[in-house]
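Long-time lurker. I teach an intro course on protein structure, and each term I like to show students one example going from raw sequence to a predicted 3D structure in token notation. This year I'd like something fresh instead of my usual example. Would anyone be willing to generate the tokens for the chain below so I can use it in lecture? Attribution to the forum is fine with me.
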Amino acid sequence: MTSDALRSPLRRRLGGFLLLAGGLGAGLAPAMSLASVDGELDVPYVQTPDSVVGAMLDLAAIQSGEYVIDLGAGDGRLLIEAARRGAEGFGVDIDPRLVELANRNAKAAGVGERARFLVQDLFETDLSRANVLTVYLLPAVNAKLLPTVLALEPGTRIVSHDYGFGDWQPDRKVTVEAPNKPVNAIKTSDLLLFFVPERVAGRWQGEGQEPWSLELAQDFQFVKGHLSVGGQRLPITEGKLEGRQLMLRAGSGESTVTLNATVTGDTLEGKAQRQGNTLDWQGRRLP
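-- Reply from a regular --
Happy to contribute to a lecture. Here you go:
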């Protein structure tokens, strides 16, 4: 973020609101913060209602000991609540005043050692430690983040407030009441949960009670292609990933095969259901 950008009319116009929001923010939730897209400020700070904070963490199914990264952390309330639930992590914001406020709030809440806040451009932030990533950013910012997000460890959960990631459909969506939402006439919030999918596209060969093979194409978490087994080449009628968990159905009628498997890199292991029998299947991706 350049000093010229920080002095932009948009930044000056928002300055009073930022200080007011911080001063009144006794409760603790994530916020839209300021980020740059191609040198322009593109995401104003908007405080997230407390009712949405808990719902976002519930949707993410935050577990004690997990690592949470909050992009556009504002006054720190979301990460502070995550730390109260036993998680740890850090949040970033480009406004030093908000970062100072968030660190004070974390210390006052008794979670200062588990919830840290940094003055940092979200596009330059290392996200690799995240079990859960939380964002409240505009669609253009999410679009710029998408390649970085998809490169995270498969199974990483992303919870986004109101805005998605272009063509990537959420795995789950909930709408919650947000009576204190400071923007929009409709006082509700859409919360979107995404699981970073494992990469499964390619040809797979496996053995079990009988040889089998897969030809897979992938569009984010959705999978299509063919399964060959028992002399039959069956089209995949349903295929979906949730992180590393692959669930697919191929064929129809008596020829139907279902597979539930864990994919880790170039290996696949799971159980298939075929003609009333449960079969152990293991396979590898072909070069």
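Some talking points for your students: Confidence is low (pLDDT under 50) at residues 1-42. Residues 92 and 118 are 5 Å apart (CA to CA).
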